[in-house]
Amino acid sequence: MDILPEEHRNEPHRRFNPLRGDWVLVSPHRGKRPWLGAVEKPAPNDRPQYDPKCYLCPGNTRAEGAQNPKYESTFVFQNDFSALLKETDDSIKSPSETPLFKSESVRGECRVICFSPRHDLTLPQMEIPEIRHVIDIWTQQADELLRKYRWVQIFENKGAVMGCSNPHPHGQIWASSSLPNEPAAEEKNQKTFFEEYGKTLLSVYLEKELELQERVVTENADWAVVVPFWAVWPYETLLLPKFNAARILDLNDGQRDSLALILKEFLGIYDKLFDTSFPYSMGWHGAPGTLNENFDTAHWTLHAHFYPPLLRSATVKKFMVGYEMLGEPQRDITPEQAAERLKALK
Ligand code: H2U
Ligand code: ZN
After folding, report:
1. N or C end of the chain: which has fewer CB within 10 A?
2. Are the C-beta atoms of residues 83 and 174 closer than 8 Å to each other?
3. What pLDDT digit, counting tens, does each position of 253-280 carry?
């Protein structure tokens, strides 16, 4: 049975995002316009393997004077301009009689993770064992930081268009004593779903997507990449495990190996789409709660979101402006069309 009413393939409709609990407006009739994919040739990658001016390259001095070691694989350091601070007393709250002026303190740590010592690479250009090593470091960091903090956000901003300050391959890890908005919504919605159906929301969702095969971009024995039914960004994807895992630190050896493989493959597909090093913000979401809290994780499915801004070419991006800021997100190209284009590049 097709889950999408036939009318919704051609006519304006809204789709519900069960993870966030909100809606997106889809306008397929506009996406039917001819493919005006004016593909501007992007600037060639002429970055050197080592850049003496890069604050992330091995051996170089960072903005505040600290010196990077001559690291040879993945290197993590404390962000010199951390948005959260370890020393903050997180018990302070505004008085309860000011419901419209609420504030609360938050404690945390921000780290930067250099994926590779090579200035000229990106994740999909790295070798499989090197990507696997990045996964191990993500896991170790989550394991360490989840002992002290309720939330650990592992993410990567890639490309100047996403506000990334330096092309040296790197990501970030922010840990905080409180749960940020996005995971808070996912926590609530996955819990409600689990209580009602006795299964995790994303495992039920993935099962259906694997059966339909309309929005699945690629998969291996352990993982699948789908353009979610409720995608907001033109080529947004969701990376999902085919097994039960609530957190990145639940992955075993084999699951980490297969994760490295699928990351390399599908980030390579992204790069092929507009013949450019594809920009995005990506990040991992898994069960919150400090590890010593015995937090219930049964309702959680580990997943990674990829939010790429590009719409039609290496330089034409989707703007989340007028209606999106004031009404709700809107898209033209349907998730099904996006998945088809990505799949064709396999
Ligand atoms: P983005 O490129 O994704 O913004 O990440 C770079 C981070 O690196 C940013 O958060 C930090 C910035 O604060 N940084 C340092 O910690 N030390 C430096 O010398 C420069 C940048
Ligand atoms: Zn560098």
Report:
1. N
2. yes
3. 999 999 999 999 999 999 999 999 999 9
